[in-house]
Structures are given as structure tokens and as C-alpha cells.
Amino acid sequence: MTVAPARRLTRPLIAALVLATLAGAALAKPEVTDPIVRERVEAMQLLKLQTGILGDMAAGKLPYDAAKAQEAAAAILATADAIEPLYEERALDPASDALPEIWNAPGEFRQKANRLYKAAMGVDAGSAKAIAGSMQALGAACKDCHGRFRQ
Ligand code: HEC
Predict the structure, then answer these.
(1) How many Å apart are CA 36 and CA 86, to the nearest integer?
(2) In the CATH hierarchy, which fold is given to the domain comprising 11-149?
(3) Does pLDDT of 32 surpass 90?
(4) Ligand 1, CB cutoff 6 Å, lining residues
(5) pTM (2 d.p.)
(6) What is the mean pLDDT of residues 85-106?
(7) In this structure, is the dihedral angle defined by the CA atoms of residues 5, 7, 12 and 17, taken in order, positive or negative?
(8) What is the pLDDT of the chain when averaged over all its residues?
């Protein structure tokens, strides 16, 4: 499929994406009060949810659904594209797990966000087996950034 992501998602767009996906699901961290940090956490929750859908289809826990799989891959791509702008401002919240290193090494942070973007671009949503073949690159991109920039 061809995905044409907006190069820079606006915040309201991300919020809409998150709302459409989470639809009432409780945030893991209600104690986060800073609005920018909340958006970041919501974007990460969205990544978890969508990656989970792909992972479950790959593992046969969820029946393969082409439209749903493509939707998940597109949402991951759009969210990956939004990571850098979401972390542009040095907003911090005591409940945030983001390390201040993000703002000392913005180039590296961007590179890791791009790695996820590329992994999302590379997702083959054509079958459960194809998805399974894409999951490792996806998961590695999440871990790569978390290992360096998340406490
Ligand atoms: C470029 C860096 C980066 C990438 C790539 C990334 N994350 Fe994160 N993630 C973070 C940071 C930083 C935090 C800490 C959030 C905060 O408090 O600001 C985080 C937090 C999280 C959380 C915890 C949210 C909460 O409730 O506090 C989840 C879940 C998560 N990420 C999932 C994912 C998944 C799944 C992927 C890959 C598909 C991913 N992330 C890719 C940087 C990244």
C-alpha cells in the first residue's frame, strides 16, 4: 500500500489520531499533568497499541485483517513522524520517563525517531507471515530509543 504521511503532523491531528484509537482507554499515567508531556505519552501509548495489533496478528492471536494491519502500520508511521516535533520543546514533568539527554543530543534523538519511521515504512502488511517478518525491525527501533532516552 502507499502511505502519504504529512511530513509534520500538527498537534490537533495527533490528538485526533490518539482519540480515535484509544477511544476511552485509560492512560497508564494519569498523574502526568504537563499538556505537552501528556501528548508525548499518548503518542507512545498509540505506538504500543498499534504495534500490539500487528504483533498479535503476526502471532495468530488476532485474525489477520488487511485493512486493520495497514491502518496500524500507517498510524505507526504517522506517529513516528510526530515524535521529533513532540519533543522539540524542553517540557518536563515529574511523572515523565523522558531523559533530559533528549535535549543534549537532539541529532541522535532524531536519528532514532527516523529509525522507527523507516521500520514503519518497511512493514509489509500483506499477510500475517509478512507482518511477522517486519516485527523485529519495529521492536528494535522502539528499544533503541528507549535504551538511550527513556528512564
Ligand atoms: C525516538 C525515541 C522513541 C522511539 C522511537 C519510541 N519511543 Fe516510546 N518512549 C520514548 C520516550 C522518551 C518515552 C518517555 C515518555 C515521556 O514520559 O515523555 C517513551 C515511552 C514509551 C511508553 C510508556 C508511555 C507511558 O505510559 O508512560 C511506551 C508504552 C512506549 N514508549 C512505546 C513505544 C513503542 C511501542 C515504540 C515503537 C513502536 C516506541 N515507544 C518508540 C521514546 C521513544
Answers:
(1) 7
(2) Four Helix Bundle (Hemerythrin (Met), subunit A) (1.20.120)
(3) no
(4) 28-29, 37, 40-41, 44-45, 47-48, 51, 76, 83, 96-98, 109, 112-113, 116, 138, 141-142, 145-146, 149-150
(5) 0.86
(6) 92
(7) positive
(8) 86
